[in-house]
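Q: My labmate handed me this sequence with no annotations at all. I'd like to see what the chain might look like in three dimensions before we decide whether it's worth expressing. Could you predict it?
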Amino acid sequence: MEKFDGTPIIFTPDNEPYLGRKLLFHLDQIISSLLEQNRSTAPLSHTAQLTDHQRMACLIIPQAISIILSLRELIRQGYLFGGHVLLRPMVERAAILLYLHSYPDEICRWNRGWNHNEAPSLSKMFDAIQAKRQEPPIARGHELTASMNSLLHAKPDSSFWNFVKVGENNSGYAVSKILNRPELCDELCANMIPWIAVIQGMMAVYFSRESTTEDIP
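A: Here is what I predict for the chain of 217 residues:
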């Protein structure tokens, strides 16, 4: 099915609008690696007596993977603005996995429901995770979350992510697919790739074949 101008209504892997972008290619590679790792790791969670941390990871990791696959399909269909909005929930799940590994005693907050009035914000988790490195922080947590929060809460500077050219001399804000801003595709891929690597690392930490209920935090 195509629009009157010949643009496909639904894109497939053979004709998606940003096919051939280098970062998109690398994103596809790491997603394939993630799914393969999950396929071999998931059975380990079915046969072992799970720790609190493992039970948490059994919830968080599948959710993160589902969001990642949703993001990939949004890129394929050209819904880049929606993809950037959905980035934060994926990052937050990766950060929770990393934070609770870095601060294992905090699992008690998770078990109590990870409630808003006591669970650390994403910004505070970033600060705490970097504090474990015993080196100056790369950036403060609020700086790392600023753009994601702008998108999520519709702040004025979020306008950048759906601003498009319309015709030769006009511009406006996209309400649907964005097919002419490859830099937005590249940025989304660049932001996803390292966090997928974090999820893979945490999957290995929580569910390695050598792990026992004693040596997982």
